[in-house]
Design a protein that fits this description.
With 356 residues, this protein is an alpha/beta fold. The protein has 3 domains: 80 residues, Arc Repressor Mutant, subunit A, CATH 1.10.10; 92 residues, no CATH class; 169 residues, Rossmann fold (3-Layer(aba) Sandwich), CATH 3.40.50. It has 17 helices and 12 strands. The strands form 4 sheets. Strands 6-8-7-9-10 form a 5-stranded mixed β-sheet, with helices on both faces. A 3-stranded antiparallel β-sheet has the order 1-3-2. Strand 9, helix 13 and strand 10 form a beta-alpha-beta unit. Helix 1 crosses helix 2 and helix 15 runs antiparallel to helix 16. The N and C termini lie far apart (51 Å).
Length: 356
């Protein structure tokens, strides 16, 4: 259950007419293991903000004394009034909901008729389309444009309402005969024996990716890697689904990025998003990056990055004390080491078979 629905259920059963932001945060910490530490980090706060904003837009709560806010950006009010629904006002609306397509799960809208009033027009369009005996196979964005003249009504924007409405109705994309259009990634395979399992390496940056391609394609190496994937920064968080379409079943997927807060965040987001994959850090890559840049003066990160104590701590657990201390010291000072510091020449030195 996502953050919005957890808070909605909590607020509906809350005994008082006013509720504080701190109470909602504490509730989420107890109910959602993902948010226990994540809620103090930018991604977790963003998720909280979106949920609270939706509750306000759906007239479930409204800010009280909005001048008192959090210090984060965007800010949230510290206290809210719970908008109590008047059951008598929604008698006709609930009757209308009850007569919707029997394939719909109506529980959410029967419990929240005021949200139904807001979503009503879109629900009618979806209901009409679902009643068609023959539905052509379309991508999600194609169907979105066909139904709503907006290719991103279901997916593609932070405020895309379509997917939320489908979830409220218990309707899947398969029910509408539409499919997810995978975002492809650049990759190279080096498997000599078709029976060998894939051991993949995801590389954050382009130059380092192509250096590894040269290493594995042109040199004799001690690395047991036969699949390279170009992560292209944060893009890999969504594009890694492309593995399903390629039908590449990797025994293990290693990740190698910059030593900075963003690179570490990408790794943790991948682990969270793809729990069924055996995702691990490419430990030797990070250690060699530190080793071969020891003579350099680390630079400040080129853009503001949030230091996430929990992410850094769990990342450092993969390394021995010496390397962990270097990483922790760098990040706490807002410094970083780009992957490019571990060049092709150094890769050949470390991983070339002749150097063993």
């Amino acid at each position: 259950m996502d953050t919005y629905y957890l808070l909605l259920k909590y607020i509906r059963s809350y005994p008082k007419v006013r509720i504080e932001l701190g109470d909602m945060v504490n509730f989420l910490r107890q109910r959602d293991y993902r948010l226990r530490t994540k809620i103090d980090q930018p991604e977790g706060y963003e998720e909280l903000y979106k949920a609270i904003d939706r509750l306000i837009q759906d007239k479930i709560i409204k800010p009280v004394n909005p001048r008192k806010k959090t210090h984060f950006n965007p800010p949230l009010a510290l206290k809210y009034a719970i908008v109590k629904e008047d059951a008598e006002d929604y008698t006709e609306t609930k009757r209308e909901i009850a007569h919707l397509n029997p394939a719909f799960d109506l529980q959410f809208y029967l419990s929240n008729p005021q949200i139904y009033q807001k979503d009503k027009e879109s629900i009618r369009i979806i209901e009409q389309y679902l009643s068609h005996e023959e539905k052509p196979l379309l991508s999600i964005n194609e169907l979105s444009y066909q139904l709503f003249d907006d290719e991103k009504y279901f997916k593609g924007r932070q405020d895309s309402p379509g997917e939320r409405i489908l979830k409220n109705l218990g309707v899947s994309y398969e029910d509408l005969n539409c499919y997810y259009a995978y975002e492809p990634f650049i990759h190279h395979q080096f498997r000599k024996n078709p029976q060998d399992p894939f051991v993949g390496l995801i590389i954050e940056n382009k130059d380092t990716y192509w250096s590894f391609v040269r290493l594995l394609s042109s040199c004799s190496t001690i690395l047991k890697i036969n699949l390279l994937i170009y992560g292209e920064g944060k893009k890999i968080i969504s594009s890694l689904r492309y593995l399903e379409l390629l039908n590449l079943k990797a025994e293990k997927l290693l990740y190698f990025g910059d030593i900075d807060c963003e690179g570490i965040g990408i790794y943790h987001k991948l682990v969270e998003t793809y729990p069924s994959l055996n995702l691990q850090l490419f430990q030797s890559g990070y250690e060699n990056l530190i080793k071969h840049t020891a003579h350099k003066s680390p630079r400040k990160t080129p853009k503001s990055q949030k230091y996430r104590e929990q992410d850094v701590h769990s990342f450092c657990l993969h390394f021995d004390k010496v390397y962990a201390n270097v990483i922790r010291d760098l990040l706490s000072k807002g410094l970083y080491l780009p992957q490019e510091g571990f060049s092709l020449a150094y890769m050949i030195e470390e991983y070339g078979a002749a150097h063993v």
